[in-house]
Amino acid sequence: MAGPFGAIDTAGTGLVLHRTWLDAVADNIANVNTVRPTSGRAFQARYVVAEAANYGGTDGVRVAGAEFGDPVGRVTYQPGNPLADARGYVRLPDIDLADQMSQLIMAQRGYQANLAVVERATAAYQQAIGLGR
Length: 133
What we know:
2 helices; single chain; alpha+beta; three-stranded antiparallel sheet; elongated; 133 residues
């Protein structure tokens, strides 16, 4: 992505990656208490896999895919739950809320850093255009 707007292009790839990461973490947090019957699969947390778009070049990063949490989850005793089996157990996702909050902070800071690059590069380009007048 070389060219006059390379900084904006590269930071833009970071924005897309971090937005995708934020979406995945938000989905995981929203489903941390999703209850399923023991006969079904637990909600599977989604983890974004990132990779360099052109390692050593200036093409930034991209989402390489996603990994998913364990469908077995954790079985918990909740006899009053309408989804409980005959023994009173239900299936919950195996999501660590503290870990997800840490992931949320990292993704948010990465998004903010890339946005700051876009804003600073835009200001620099606008000043450069102003010099030509």
